[in-house]
Design goal:
Helices cover 79% and strands 0% of the residues. By secondary structure, the chain is mainly α. The protein has one domain. The two termini are 36 Å apart.
Length: 299
């Protein structure tokens, strides 16, 4: 039951992040990327402290250290993604960022020698193909923006991997608070360095930041970090990859993008990837049951 709860929380997170594409598009019309990042993380940190202030006493050195690692990867991922977008197309940026689905099991193998499950790897590859069909619109030429986008994928892959590792040993809420504190500090420092301190705020920009802070940051990351206690890092990455599908859906509904056959094919492949990862235990179970039946017949 907890496994399905974790998967459901990850799916809700993907839906929220998908809607975040539309909201972020609105926010960037009034604020710079660094202001958006600082606003969402600072407000999310304050919201977490208000809701879970009693957790502050659980912020041990271990939690703060692990949270700082996650917060740093989170900040780097967003920075590299945003800066990379200045030099490449949004479609290529989205596709290259989504490569983290394939990178997660590779990290697990290189760092902890965890065997790469063939179902997870097949699911990851299919998910990448699906995301590519959803996102890719232009050529595959490589430029600095593409390189930064790939670096962003690595940062997000490490964030997913270490969140999965740390959430099994530390309290998820405490870990999220520590993670947001570090991301907030780094974001504010970036704003100060860039000289992006806002002198005025439009209501549309404020509402967008509030949505991103409450839903796309606080709720989404609480759900993600909690869900990692019940699932594997690779399965989490695959489920979270449906963010691209929901991003497409909300873009069609609210930004009136045209839904093409290519986009539908990509969505179907992503769903297939999730089913492969989810049904893996059933495949193994069916094999075991079949062996038992064959063994019983021999007597």
């Amino acid at each position: 039951m907890k496994k399905y709860l974790g998967d459901g929380m990850l799916l809700v997170t993907a839906i929220i992040w998908g809607s975040g594409f539309v909201v972020t598009d609105i926010a960037l019309k009034y604020l710079t990327p660094y202001q958006v990042m600082a606003g969402r993380f600072v407000l999310a940190t304050l919201l977490l402290i208000i809701l879970f202030g009693f957790k502050l006493k659980t912020l041990t050195n271990s939690v703060m250290w692990k949270g700082s690692i996650l917060g740093t990867f989170l900040f780097l991922g967003f920075v590299l993604q945003t800066v990379g977008l200045q030099y490449t197309t949004p479609s290529k940026n989205a596709f290259l960022t989504a490569v983290n689905v394939v990178i997660v099991p590779v990290i697990a193998y290189l760092v902890y020698k965890r065997r790469i499950d063939r179902y997870e790897m097949v699911g990851s590859v299919i998910a990448i193909v699906g995301i590519g069909l959803l996102s890719m619109q232009s050529s595959m030429t490589i430029n600095i923006g593409d390189v930064l986008s790939l670096a962003c994928a690595v940062a997000f892959a490490f964030d997913i991997f270490y969140t999965n590792l740390f959430a099994k040993k530390e309290d998820a809420i405490s870990l999220t608070i520590a993670q947001f504190i570090m991301a907030s500090i780094l974001s504010v420092v970036a704003v100060l360095i860039k000289g992006d301190i806002p002198t005025s705020l439009e209501s549309e920009g404020v509402y967008s930041i509030l949505y991103l802070a409450v839903f796309a940051t606080t709720i989404a990351y609480l759900f993600q970090n909690k869900a990692h206690q019940y699932t594997t890092a690779t399965k989490a990455a695959i489920i979270l990859s449906t963010e691209s599908f929901f991003g497409m859906l909300f873009s069609v509904l609210f930004l009136h993008e045209v839904l093409t056959r290519r986009m539908v094919t990509g969505a179907v492949l992503i769903i297939m990837a999730i089913l492969i990862a989810e049904l893996k235990p059933s495949f193994n179970k069916n094999k075991s049951v079949k062996k038992v039946h064959e063994s019983n017949k021999s007597y």
